[in-house]
Amino acid sequence: MTRLSLAIPSKGRLKEKSEEWLAAAGFPVTQIGGERGYQAEIAGLGDVEMRLLSAREIAQGLVDGSLHAGVTGEDLLHDLAPDGEADFRVLHRLGFGGADVIVAVPQAWVDVDTMAELEAAGAAFRKAHHRRLRVATKYMRLTRRFFAARSVGEYRLVESAGATEAAPTTGSADVIVDITSTGATLKANGLKILSDGLILKSEAVFAISPRADWKGPALGSLQALTTAADIEIGSLS
Predict the structure, then answer these.
(1) Rounded to 5 degrees, what are φ and ψ at 2?
(2) In degrees, to the nearest 5, what angle opens at C-alpha 197 toward C-alphas 208 and 110?
(3) DSSP 63
(4) Which domain holds residue 172?
(5) Is residue 37 a part of any domain in this protein?
(6) Which residues pair with 133 in a beta bridge?
(7) Fewer CB atoms inside 10 A, N or C side of the chain?
């Protein structure tokens, strides 16, 4: 018999707001082992495997089916899913953790304000410098899909391991795809968002995995949670 595996972020505001949401629905979470522990218990849902993970780990678990349900960023789900929205199902947008995934270029690029102009600049750059524009990002799939949909091909991706917004200043990339809430950090780093460069408006979501094993008590525990939180499940088949 399969018990529900449920995960929320392990730290920060996402953890706090996730716990508040679950507690408001009648299911308080208790962390085991103090603030540094990564195990937890949730009351009122029966035998549930409650996990505290990074938001990225939760998204990956939902995509590959190793988690039944969890709270994570919508941006991460879209980026980690090979087949897009077929790999996960968002049941509820939670109203916190909001951020936009955007394309940004140096403010000094006065002739580049759209994706089409970025493609033209990329072609000119390649002719002049014998290499493609480098786009730094942590969102590899999201970037490829968005650029392809807008017929932009004069670039190569550079996976960002640190502060993506600093990549053009340090010379490790020319363009970035990153998340922003206010745009202040981008501006401080001499960057501007392209006028049609909004890839995704993201926030924290409660999502489930179509690939998880929903036999046995897992489905019953999910139904108890969604009923209390006034969320529609629909069919899992």
Answers:
(1) -100, 125
(2) 160
(3) H
(4) 99-201
(5) yes
(6) 155
(7) C
